[in-house]
Amino acid sequence: VALDILSQTNNFLSIKECTFIADKGYDVKAIYNTIKDVYFGECVIPLNKRNSKSQKNFQAVTLFVTRALPCTRTENSRIVDAPAKNIAVR
If 82 and its partner were Cys, which of 45, 54, 69, 77 is the partner (CB 3.0–4.6 Å)? Predict the structure, then answer.
């Protein structure tokens, strides 16, 4: 479902070169590969410890898409970040 949401989002708002942040429920090779190869972005997803014996808790999940804008250096060599645009997709 996440790949369909990303594709539909890209139809009206470019998500090329974005950083994708999601919870460990999205730790799937297809998502990593699509974001890297199609959208030229990065993934920040915690590893899902498969086959663990811990109790699973189900809760609502939000997928965040963040577009990082370029940084510029000041004369004091400090990095000044431009504000990022965030999109929450439920």
Answer: 69
The reported pTM is 0.54
CA 88 vs. chain centroid, Å, equals 10
- Tokens read off for 52: 């663990």
Encoded tokens for 4: 């369909």
β-pairing verdict for 19-21 and 42-44: parallel
| Angle formed by the axes of helices 29-37 and 2-12, nearest 10° | 20
Q: What is the pLDDT of residues 26-54, one digit of tens each?
A: 999 999 999 999 999 999 998 888 766 55
Cα dihedral 23, 52, 47, 9 sign: negative
DSSP single-letter state for residue 16:
T
Please say whether the beta carbons of 44 and 69 come within 8 A.
no
Q: Which residues pair with 85 in a beta bridge?
A: 67
